[in-house]
Hints:
Elements: H1 7-15, H2 19-26, H3 30-40, E1 43-47, H4 54-63, E2 76-80, H5 90-96, H6 100-114, E3 123-127, H7 136-147, E4 154-158, E5 174-177, H8 183-192, E6 199-204, E7 211-212, E8 230-239, H9 244-247, E9 256-264, H10 266-274, E10 281-284, H11 289-296, E11 303-308, H12 316-327, E12 334-339, H13 349-355, E13 363-368, H14 370-373, H15 381-387, E14 397-402, H16 415-427, E15 429-431, H17 435-439, E16 441-444, E17 447-453, E18 460-465
Parallel strand pairs: 1-2, 2-3, 3-4, 4-5, 5-6, 6-8, 7-8, 8-9, 9-10, 10-11, 11-12, 12-13, 13-14, 14-16
Antiparallel strand pairs: 15-18, 16-17, 17-18
Helix pairs in contact: 2-3, 4-6, 10-11, 11-12, 12-13
Amino acid sequence: MFSSLPFELSRKIASLLSLEEQKNLRLTSKEFSVLATPLVFQTVSLRLNDDHHYHRCMSLLKALSSPSYLSQNIETLCIYGSFEPPRGKCRFWSKITNGRRRAIRLIEKRLLEAIPSLASLKSLYFSGFRTGELRPDSVNAIILALSNLPLLSLLNVGFYSFRPSYSEFHDLDNITFTVGQDVLRAVPSLVARSPNLTRLRLTNYRRVSAIPTAAIFSDIHKGKVSCVEHLDLGGAFILLTHDVPIIVPHLRHLTSLTIHITDIAEEFWSALRIEMIHLRDISVDFLNDGVLEYLESYSGVRSMLLIIWGQEVNNGSLRFWHNILPKHADTLVDLCVRPEYAGGWCLDNRSLASIRQCTRLQILRVTVDQETLGLDDESNIITRTLEVFHEWRCLIHLGFISISMRNISPLLPSDSEFDPIQSLVAAFRCINPTDGALRLEVAVDNAAYRLSRQNFDLGVYSFKEIHR
């Protein structure tokens, strides 16, 4: 029956299958191979640092060295390199050490031979190579060959210390530079040559002196502005007061901002508020009055990640739970609040009451500290939250993040509080949960749980740990 359908309809149905199912379909018959092959090879990953994939990847590169039906189907290419052995790969490392130079030269040769055949390539992820592996002249040749691909619109590169030229790239929609690259040398001109750029992600962790954020847009001609909609900055960047009037005109189309940088002027948030640049997705790791005033000035945030470092000032948490969160309650689907210290930003009765107004939540991650945990109370904050999770009908992930009483990062689990929270989740019971509740995953730091029927009582459910 499937084979009798029109080709376009069959292709649409096949596109809904999982990758494994598409692979199996491809092996069924010649007709299905024609149908499934373009789908299977839309995205290709070359993991050159994995002994399970290395030889297969090299064979694939060899097959791509001339134009073929296979190469014409590849729209996304991911190249992961580095011969520094990942954890558990030392055996593979010892095998290739003697032939390392020859293996590297073969990688260079096959990459250069394969790239010109990738006429349909739209997205490139290229990262992991270190100095002493690919030769600098080979890297430049590879980058130049990639820049000549006519449909390439997404460039994601993460070399550790190479400094290739990107001068031939242009008209990109999506740019990502990570891991200690020469951002100032490459990015400003690349941004200027990409007038339709909508997504820009820059991470700079290896530079001695911080980079002024305004420099990113410094090569755009006077009178023209960027149309970037999604901006993600991390690491050694600074946004000082005198740079605010320079950068804000380039952010008039901004809807998503992730900014975890060295220093950011409070005036930046005032400028966003005055210019009525209303973000739908925001992620910040430093809260001050400017951020709070900005978030209080409008409604409509969809995703909010707040990491709070340093002691609370001006009752910021009270202002957030009482005034700010309710303004976004009708649109918020992803909320994460992660303070580094105990106090008002942690989950308690006040914050839970505000969060319950956010009825469209799909992801909720909150921090719990010893003071508000209430272990001696039968209705502790963990149990109270679990008792009302059915009110969030769309919720698929509920995360409890423990905080250390020693003021360490909330990213790390606390030995003193990890077990009590875990025990409270495991002790929770409910009767006849909804289908949505059965899909919910509850996480406690590094452990995850899902509702499961009790063996001794078919009507009672409890949370059981998921072993992945």
